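Batch 3, record 17
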Amino acid sequence: MNYNWNWSIFFEPAPGGTGTYFDMLLSGLWLTIQTGIFAWIIALIFGSIVGVLRTLPSKTAYWIGFAWVEFFRNMPLLVQLFLWFFVLPELLPRSWGLWLKQMPNAPFYTAAIGVGLFMSARVAVQLAAGIASLPRGQKQAATALGLTTFQGYRYVLLPIAFRIIMPPLTSEFLNTIKNTAVAITIGLIELTGQARSMQEFSFQVFEAFTAATVMYLLINIVVVTGMRFLERSLAIPGYITGK
Amino acid sequence: MFASFDFDVIRRSLGYLFLDGMAFTLTLTALSALGGIIFGTLIALMRLSGFKVLGRIAGLYVDFMRSLPLVLVIFWFYFLVPYLGQWLTGASRPISVGAFTSALVTFIMFEAAYFSEIMRAGIQSISKGQPAAANALGMTYAQTMRYVVLPQAFRNMLPVLLTQTIVLFQDTSLVYVLSMPDFLGAASKVAQRDGRLVEMYLFAAVVYFTISCVASFGVRRLQARISIVR
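Prediction for the assembled complex:
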């Protein structure tokens, strides 16, 4: 391979005068983590609400949950980000649209909300499956104790359902972090974006992408280890994951 | 709010959008799914073969691919494929590869990791008696896989494989980052040329949504039919 390797490129100052190329990648890594966590919070909140809606006896609630999931699942994430970023400000009343367009950090908020809503559909499906997997007796016992539907979910069904779906939720969290890379298309310079600009400035393609790859692998290892620890401490003794 | 809409821009560009853009997207999806399933099956067989080293390599490949964002993998292969081509053909300099080939290699290699997990589950779902019976009939490993295990595994996993293909269909829109002329790329080119972002992106969203919805509805019907047969 006649490619000029130059691993010391990371310690050379990057154009822009804010530090070395390595600092550039680190700031990208930090932005990826921030966007990923923000998006994950949104995905968890909306996913929980929609997931519960899908399991309620009410037909209307079921259909709302169904429509939400189908809407966010059947469009590419990239197209959804474009809709939020380019189309939404035009469809809103003029003054709101202007406010949206002039908002500082618009790519960051768009990415966090867009990826968050996209992932909320997946969280909802997982949670609905988790609730459905509980024995019918749980819900009946809650009713027999005189708990309202809300209380039944809050104190009986959800605490167990969430623990059951911990392993799939871990991979959905990782997917959320990976999906933030799509936001490069709306101008969010996160880890992949920084690797790309490092490649454009320095022409050291493979060093830049190797570094980004290693950083993504590190994120994965940290998240998987952390979640395994959390899973173990939250496992219900004698129940499913509790060994 | 739809008063200033110019629906004519969609009508004018229909030919370009579908005959060029959608054709690119669908060809890429079909070939990537085919290649991904073939490679994925090989990886699954490696993981399930008794050879520890082979299984480790396959497992590492799958875990590695699955922990990277597709966008990064697209960039990787875009720059890597010319060098790979040089290495394979023994040329003296990196060969130039078309946008389509580069995207195809990317998606096959990336999706193979996901398809292999599906095929692994499919192969493991076959009861032990099946390969044992094939063995008793004097079949070799290749014959057992070819005539007994894989046909059943494919059949059981068909709905999941097709669902993954729908995901792949949506994921091909990411070739946008290399400004390739897929459906979204075509829509975006028209949008920027005519200054009609709202109309074109809404239209693209509707098209992707319709195709994915119809396809997943079809998969659900298929699943219902298959589960009755078993």
